[in-house]
Amino acid sequence: MKISGQGPVNPFKIYNQQQQLKQKDGKFRPVGDTLELSPEAKKVQELVRLGAELPEVRVELIREIRSRLENQTYHVSPQQLAESILKSMQEEK
User: Fold this and answer.
1) More confident residue, 34 or 32
2) Residue 93: its pLDDT value, please?
3) What is the pLDDT of residue 8?
4) Four-residue CA torsion sign, 34, 39, 40, 42
5) Inter-CA distances, 83 with 42, 44, 59, 76, 93, Å
């Protein structure tokens, strides 16, 4: 049996040849791999950055509730309290 063909392929040789061809056409192109983010990925990246800048504690809300507690004007309905307790118990499971 005779097998003819190209033989084993060297991926590094092919990669280097492609890089040299890119440089010969006179246009500047970075040598090596490149990455281009889609518009959606750029938006997600921006939202993550903005989220990281947000304070972990909502200071304004804490001040408002503290003030209402001190003035005895902060009231929670029994239904809201029961819903919060139930939600808390479900999250623990």
Assistant:
1) 34
2) 72
3) 75
4) positive
5) 38, 33, 24, 11, 16
Nearest by Cα to 66 from 75, 74, 76: 74
CA 72 to CA 61: how far, in whole Å?
16
Distance CA 11, CA 16 (A): 9
Has this prediction a pTM greater than 0.70? no
Closest CA to 58 of 66, 48, 69: 66
Helices (H), the chain: 11-24, 39-53, 59-70, 78-92
Q: Which of 10, 34, 35, 36 is nearest to 22 (CA)?
A: 34
Residue 37 carries which side chain, given as an amino acid letter?
A: L
Tokens matching residue 74 = 């902060």
71 has a pLDDT exceeding 90: yes
Stronger pLDDT, 86 or 92, i.e. the higher one: 86
Question: Taking the domains of the chain in order of start, what are their residue ranges?
Answer: 39-93
